[in-house]
Design goal:
By secondary structure, the protein is α/β, with parallel strands linked by helices. It has helices at 2-30, 89-97, 124-136, 153-164, 180-185, 192-204, 215-222, 238-248, 265-268, 272-285, and strands at residues 50-55, 61-67, 74-78, 101-105, 146-151, 168-174, 227-232, 253-257.
Length: 309
Amino acid sequence: MKWRWLVGGVLALGLLAALAVFGRAWRHSEGYFHYPKPTAVKPADLAEARDVKLVAADGLVLRGWYVPSRNGAAVVMAHGLSQTRADLLPEARILKAAGYGVLLFDLRAHGESEGATSTWGDKERLDVRAALDFVRAQPDVDPERVGALGFSIGSAAVAEVAAKDPAVRAVVLLSPFNTLWLAAAYDFRRFGFVSQSGALVPFWRRGIAIEEVRTIDAVEHIRPRPLLIVMGTEESGQPLADELFAKVREYAQTWRIQGAGHGNFAATEPVEYPRRLRAFLDAALLPEGAVSAGVPSSSGKAAPEQPRP
């Protein structure tokens, strides 16, 4: 009988430990959905940007700024979690100076846009589609010369939309995640199924379509259109970046910026980052042979990734 009590005690302790790990992961992951929601302030150097209102297919109203195009091309920009349109101002300034039209907008549940919660790229697909529709309708834009740029969760939404919309002529993914499942569960992998399933509960209970957001699959449907992927060497999940970069090696431009974390690439590479971003978009969106001011012509071929440290 004693051995039965012993076995029972061990099993009970194991169950309690598993529940504790599960609950801890759940609580930590739940925090991802409770984030500050600052309001973006328009900077003086974007004074000419128009305040615009977008309406997503599910009725949510999104707020943004639109800088008119001077070269007939434009780029839609989607920010990351707990950010606003202002977090992509470094990229917007680079492209504005080169003559591109730029649409910066707050994703649902961020900044001044409506919405109860972020869905990490799931329903944000509707936001990106609304942004593309808006830009293509502008009189200063050739609808055949529109690209999209996304950071983190914004990159997930951009990749998914571009995979199904061939009219997105160029795609820039900054700090993308391979799949939403991995984005939610990767940092909880230490205790395997128990901790990872706990981390996924906040996503499941909000009805987020975790299995549908898969950048690593979407990129295959973006090809042969121009694709640029940029990440930092100090971001978490470098093995996942290795997998994504290996998959697109034959048809995309990739760059892992030495010393960069999750975003803020313009600060880490203040000269090379603007040059590469503009050269990539020039090759993809401008008439053949045309380039932005001060940017050498680009062949459009895949650029070699910088060596890992």
